[in-house]
Write the C-alpha coordinates for this entry.
Amino acid sequence: RVPYVVVCALHDDEDAVHTLVDKCAHFLINYAKAFKEAGADGIIMAEPVSGLLSPALEKEFSSPYVKKIVDAVQDDEFILIYHNCGNNTHLMTESIYSTGSAAYHFGNAVDMKDMMGIVMADNSELALNELTELRSVPALPFGGRYRLIDFILSNMVNSGITHVGLITHYN
Protein backbone atom coordinates (compact mmCIF):
# COMPACT_ATOMS: atom_id res chain seq x y z
CA ARG A 1 0.00 0.00 0.00
CA VAL A 2 2.84 2.45 0.76
CA PRO A 3 4.29 2.41 -2.80
CA TYR A 4 0.80 3.15 -4.16
CA VAL A 5 0.41 6.12 -1.80
CA VAL A 6 3.83 7.47 -2.89
CA VAL A 7 2.92 7.19 -6.57
CA CYS A 8 -0.39 8.96 -5.97
CA ALA A 9 1.42 11.73 -4.06
CA LEU A 10 3.53 12.47 -7.14
CA HIS A 11 0.52 14.20 -8.64
CA ASP A 12 -0.23 16.28 -5.54
CA ASP A 13 3.12 17.39 -4.12
CA GLU A 14 6.36 16.51 -5.94
CA ASP A 15 8.50 18.45 -3.45
CA ALA A 16 7.14 16.42 -0.55
CA VAL A 17 7.91 13.19 -2.43
CA HIS A 18 11.49 14.37 -3.10
CA THR A 19 11.86 15.17 0.60
CA LEU A 20 10.48 11.78 1.61
CA VAL A 21 12.67 9.84 -0.83
CA ASP A 22 15.75 11.83 0.22
CA LYS A 23 15.08 10.97 3.89
CA CYS A 24 14.67 7.31 2.90
CA ALA A 25 17.98 7.44 1.01
CA HIS A 26 19.78 8.85 4.05
CA PHE A 27 18.25 6.17 6.26
CA LEU A 28 19.37 3.46 3.80
CA ILE A 29 22.88 4.92 3.63
CA ASN A 30 23.18 4.66 7.42
CA TYR A 31 21.65 1.18 7.36
CA ALA A 32 24.11 -0.01 4.68
CA LYS A 33 27.03 1.57 6.54
CA ALA A 34 26.04 -0.39 9.65
CA PHE A 35 26.23 -3.63 7.63
CA LYS A 36 29.57 -2.50 6.20
CA GLU A 37 30.97 -1.74 9.67
CA ALA A 38 29.75 -5.15 10.86
CA GLY A 39 31.90 -6.81 8.18
CA ALA A 40 29.36 -7.51 5.42
CA ASP A 41 30.68 -7.59 1.85
CA GLY A 42 27.61 -5.87 0.45
CA ILE A 43 23.84 -5.64 0.33
CA ILE A 44 21.01 -6.25 -2.10
CA MET A 45 18.67 -3.29 -2.33
CA ALA A 46 15.19 -3.72 -3.78
CA GLU A 47 13.47 -0.65 -5.18
CA PRO A 48 9.73 -1.24 -4.64
CA VAL A 49 8.34 1.93 -6.19
CA SER A 50 10.17 2.32 -9.50
CA GLY A 51 8.33 -0.63 -11.05
CA LEU A 52 5.14 1.40 -10.70
CA LEU A 53 6.60 4.53 -12.28
CA SER A 54 6.93 5.64 -15.86
CA PRO A 55 10.52 5.83 -17.15
CA ALA A 56 10.49 9.63 -16.78
CA LEU A 57 9.28 9.50 -13.17
CA GLU A 58 11.75 6.71 -12.34
CA LYS A 59 14.56 8.86 -13.73
CA GLU A 60 13.50 11.74 -11.46
CA PHE A 61 12.32 9.99 -8.30
CA SER A 62 14.31 6.76 -8.09
CA SER A 63 17.66 6.52 -9.86
CA PRO A 64 19.20 9.72 -8.45
CA TYR A 65 18.48 8.52 -4.92
CA VAL A 66 19.74 5.00 -5.59
CA LYS A 67 22.91 6.58 -7.02
CA LYS A 68 23.26 8.67 -3.86
CA ILE A 69 23.15 5.47 -1.80
CA VAL A 70 25.59 3.66 -4.09
CA ASP A 71 28.05 6.58 -4.05
CA ALA A 72 27.90 6.77 -0.26
CA VAL A 73 28.51 3.09 0.54
CA GLN A 74 29.94 1.15 -2.39
CA ASP A 75 33.70 0.72 -2.66
CA ASP A 76 36.24 -2.00 -3.44
CA GLU A 77 35.30 -3.87 -0.25
CA PHE A 78 31.50 -3.38 -0.20
CA ILE A 79 29.07 -3.70 -3.12
CA LEU A 80 25.46 -2.82 -3.68
CA ILE A 81 23.33 -5.11 -5.84
CA TYR A 82 20.29 -3.26 -7.18
CA HIS A 83 17.01 -5.18 -7.63
CA ASN A 84 14.18 -3.94 -9.82
CA CYS A 85 11.49 -6.25 -11.14
CA GLY A 86 8.81 -3.95 -12.47
CA ASN A 87 7.16 -4.40 -15.86
CA ASN A 88 8.72 -1.14 -17.09
CA THR A 89 12.28 -2.11 -16.16
CA HIS A 90 13.35 -2.76 -19.75
CA LEU A 91 12.37 0.85 -20.57
CA MET A 92 14.57 2.21 -17.77
CA THR A 93 17.88 0.44 -18.34
CA GLU A 94 19.91 3.57 -19.02
CA SER A 95 18.64 5.23 -15.86
CA ILE A 96 19.07 2.08 -13.77
CA TYR A 97 22.63 1.50 -15.00
CA SER A 98 23.47 5.15 -14.25
CA THR A 99 23.20 4.32 -10.53
CA GLY A 100 26.63 2.70 -10.68
CA SER A 101 25.62 -0.38 -8.72
CA ALA A 102 28.15 -3.21 -8.76
CA ALA A 103 25.51 -5.67 -10.01
CA TYR A 104 21.84 -5.77 -10.99
CA HIS A 105 19.02 -8.25 -10.42
CA PHE A 106 15.88 -7.88 -12.48
CA GLY A 107 13.53 -10.62 -11.29
CA ASN A 108 11.23 -12.76 -13.37
CA ALA A 109 9.07 -9.91 -14.70
CA VAL A 110 11.90 -9.02 -17.07
CA ASP A 111 12.74 -10.75 -20.32
CA MET A 112 16.54 -10.69 -20.54
CA LYS A 113 16.28 -10.21 -24.30
CA ASP A 114 14.80 -6.78 -23.56
CA MET A 115 17.66 -5.82 -21.27
CA MET A 116 20.95 -4.37 -22.42
CA GLY A 117 24.13 -6.10 -21.35
CA ILE A 118 26.75 -3.84 -19.84
CA VAL A 119 30.40 -4.82 -19.83
CA MET A 120 32.51 -2.89 -17.35
CA ALA A 121 36.08 -2.74 -18.60
CA ASP A 122 38.05 -1.33 -15.70
CA ASN A 123 41.83 -1.66 -15.95
CA SER A 124 42.50 -0.04 -12.58
CA GLU A 125 42.65 -3.28 -10.56
CA LEU A 126 44.81 -5.24 -13.00
CA ALA A 127 48.58 -5.37 -13.12
CA LEU A 128 48.86 -5.67 -16.91
CA ASN A 129 50.92 -2.51 -17.28
CA GLU A 130 52.51 -2.85 -20.73
CA LEU A 131 49.64 -4.88 -22.18
CA THR A 132 47.05 -2.22 -21.36
CA GLU A 133 49.15 0.85 -21.99
CA LEU A 134 47.56 1.45 -25.41
CA ARG A 135 44.34 -0.58 -25.21
CA SER A 136 41.68 -1.62 -22.74
CA VAL A 137 41.55 -5.11 -21.22
CA PRO A 138 38.64 -6.28 -23.44
CA ALA A 139 40.70 -5.48 -26.54
CA LEU A 140 43.64 -7.67 -25.48
CA PRO A 141 44.38 -10.50 -27.92
CA PHE A 142 43.71 -14.06 -26.77
CA GLY A 143 44.34 -17.30 -28.62
CA GLY A 144 45.44 -15.75 -31.89
CA ARG A 145 42.39 -14.25 -33.57
CA TYR A 146 40.20 -13.57 -30.52
CA ARG A 147 40.04 -10.72 -28.03
CA LEU A 148 39.03 -11.11 -24.37
CA ILE A 149 35.74 -9.30 -25.10
CA ASP A 150 34.76 -12.02 -27.60
CA PHE A 151 34.06 -14.52 -24.80
CA ILE A 152 31.85 -12.11 -22.89
CA LEU A 153 29.94 -11.12 -26.03
CA SER A 154 29.48 -14.74 -27.04
CA ASN A 155 28.00 -15.57 -23.63
CA MET A 156 25.63 -12.61 -23.84
CA VAL A 157 24.44 -13.41 -27.36
CA ASN A 158 23.96 -17.08 -26.47
CA SER A 159 21.86 -15.94 -23.47
CA GLY A 160 19.63 -13.83 -25.73
CA ILE A 161 21.17 -10.45 -24.87
CA THR A 162 21.80 -8.73 -28.18
CA HIS A 163 22.06 -5.08 -27.07
CA VAL A 164 25.42 -4.59 -25.38
CA GLY A 165 27.20 -1.54 -24.04
CA LEU A 166 30.92 -1.43 -23.23
CA ILE A 167 32.15 1.06 -20.66
CA THR A 168 35.89 1.59 -20.39
CA HIS A 169 37.59 3.71 -17.76
CA TYR A 170 40.87 3.95 -19.61
CA ASN A 171 42.12 3.80 -23.22
